[in-house]
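Sample intake sheet
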Amino acid sequence: MSENQLLAMIRRDAKRISKSFRLKYLAVEKELPQVRRRFGSCDESKLIRIRLHKLRDGRFLTYPHLIHTLCHEMAHLKFMDHGKEFKNLNSEILDWAKQTGIYRPWQG
């Protein structure tokens, strides 16, 4: 699978999540290569960035890992901190993603 194909899959799932939870975002992009301390980010402009590769060997992270990160960053669209409201929304998004088959943590 190419990086573009992987990003297309993540973007497809981001659309499904955002529609279900009425979340608005600017775009989903790959994380900048110089960023080495996080798996994803969501800034004030509502741009979501996701790290696609493992730092150690450069291979793609597993899709469940990428979707877990995506759900986390999408919760930041509503709550920029890691408080109780954020955690509740993040759990709701992850549960929904499991129920719909987007997030399959057992397929690591």
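Comment: The longest helix spans residues 3-21. The chain has a mean pLDDT of 94.
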